# Entry
Amino acid sequence: MADRRPDRPDRTLRPHGARTRGSVAPAAATPAYAPVDVDVDVDVVVVGAGPAGSAAALALARAGRSVVLVERGPFPGAKNVYGGVVYGRVLDSVIPGWQDEVPVERWVVRRSTMVMTPSQSVSIDYRSEAWGAPPYNGMTTYRSRFDAWLAARAIDAGATLVPSTVATGLLRDTAGRVTGIRTDRPDGDLTARMVVACDGVNSFLAKEAGLLPPADARHHTLGVKEVLALPPEVINERFGVLSDQGVDIEMLGCTRGIPGGGFLYTNAETVSVGVVVSLPELAASKVRPEELVADVKRHPSIAPYLRGASLQEYSAHLIPEGGFDAMGPLATDGMLVAGDAASMTLAAGLWLEGVNFAIGSGLAAGRAAHQALAAGDTSARGLASYRTDLESQFVLADHQRLRRAPGLVLSERVQQRYPGLICDLADGLFTVTNPVPKPGLVRIARRSARRHGVSLADLARDTLRAARVFR
Ligand SMILES: Cc1cc2nc3c(=O)[nH]c(=O)nc-3n(C[C@H](O)[C@H](O)[C@H](O)COP(=O)(O)OP(=O)(O)OC[C@H]3O[C@@H](n4cnc5c(N)ncnc54)[C@H](O)[C@@H]3O)c2cc1C
# Structure
């Protein structure tokens, strides 16, 4: 139960847009929010109505806390950019039956990992019919719809959404404890017994609180994406799927040697195609990111999927890819940080998962804040259960186990040599040059390795390293 303060002053904040209860924008259009008054002194202010913030607000509201969810966009998801696949099983126990109501584009049944050079590609193409039925695995969904849907669940539970409002800084008491936020509104301070910062990558609030180390470009990638329209039946035919089935293609070797990779996802009536590349090396290369997306779209293994598609949207966003070693402390007196604001995207080569990690950490932050309020101790020590909770579940367990993966996946050999080596190996195996007899496998492997400057010792070292990193 919430331990609401009887002495709370009767002050209200009139938000720019206002509050909504029960439903938020189902699509990309700006919804009409009726202006209402909002308590300026609540149990918890959550900043950012992305997946982390809405999950935190949901957990808090369900626990009976008064919670205000502040979002700078006109509605949740309005400004949010990602690639396109959400792994939703983290919601199983929180929103039973979520699969029946979530705004899904397609359920992913085919996942392909494509290693390529400008003119070749080798794919591992996995398909599972089980992924196309409950409980499902991954889904493609638009963030403008998914984030709005998740925020609506928090509002249904009792949270108050304040859109079109930017948190500009922290309020503190004389002891330095966080006691609320400043906003960009003239009447805009919001005091609270706790703040949960879910304001995404490069979080100003987390930095101000000393919970996020100063920005280090080496720990960030830039994601650039185009959404292209295609008729649904064309998508089904080209990608070999039925109407609600989707495909996820991840690519390595398509970024001109700049550490990173590409992706192609199917939505119902569009496809999303893009690249994710290391920020400092992109800057050093002087290549424009849209040229890299154009490379992917032109590639002989990708172009046939996209023939005749028309550009609908172009977007770009930073990704915190530093993983476990780039995370700061997760709590300070009166405040917690979750999701990308705490660098919680898992970018480990085979996986780029951020939304599920944001939801998992947001829920845990909500639980920890509620428990600390109930115990009357919102100091960093009183909030320590947050980290323990994250360590006991996938959020920090996966990060800790895979902490060396970004180093391996973004290494020079994996990025610049192995794609060509693997494609040459396939070429040597499958090209028939009769009347010359087939060369042996070992000879082909030696020749491919030599051509790409990889020694057998390098190969052995990297195999061992990969076995350790992904153990
Ligand atoms: C190109 C790209 C591809 C990706 N692909 C995938 C993918 O396919 N699958 C996946 O799971 N993850 C993917 N990710 C990662 C994923 O998008 C993030 O991990 C996830 O969005 C993090 O959620 P969050 O709630 O922590 O932050 P965000 O989603 O960034 O939400 C932060 C919210 O806070 C609001 N906000 C920010 N500052 C303020 C402020 N001062 N005041 C008020 N509101 C504020 C923002 O408007 C936003 O709504 C991708 C990311 C990128 C960039």
Summary: The radius of gyration is 24 Å. Residues 1-36 have pLDDT under 50 and may be disordered.
